[in-house]
Amino acid sequence: MADLIKDIIKESIKVKEAVLSKLSKDIKITSNMIATSLKKGGKVMLFGNGGSAADAQHIAAEFVGRFKLERQGLASIALTTNTSVITSIANDYGYEEIFSRQVEAIGSDNDIVIGISTSGNARNVISGLLEAKKMGLMTIALTGSGGGEMATIVDIALIVPSDNTARIQEAHIVIGHIVCELAEQKLFGR
To answer: What is the CATH number of the domain that holds 161?
Structure first.
């Protein structure tokens, strides 16, 4: 059991080291894009399925509440939280449209849309990102496993270099925290 724990932690560290070496530049670009969007009155919309839905909610909460600095709330919303909206869209249009319909309804100029999928191939996440592109919004993908289809349709693809879902999700939260901290510093740092 102790060896398994050690192996899991070492694998997590290895993935995060790969994120550091391969994604630092794109993480910085992403945080600058988000800070610029928020400064112009835009919002950050995030979505995903399962654990990625939870990650979307976690990251949105960091923007709305605070990350490290005492500051005003920043406009961010996880499109995974309103069960009435999700179930009515799924019932009337199909599950594939649960995010695209919300992006269409509440997306506006200067918004950033972040789709999260460990495989990069979740149809409803892709649909939401395509709607955002159609509307001229900036799009970001948080993925793993080579990026999947999402990596080919977004402005920035942050592809965690791993095929292990748990390790990808752990790295997504690290990336989310870094993006929040950098954007917060850019907007409110002293």
So the answer is: 3.40.50.10490
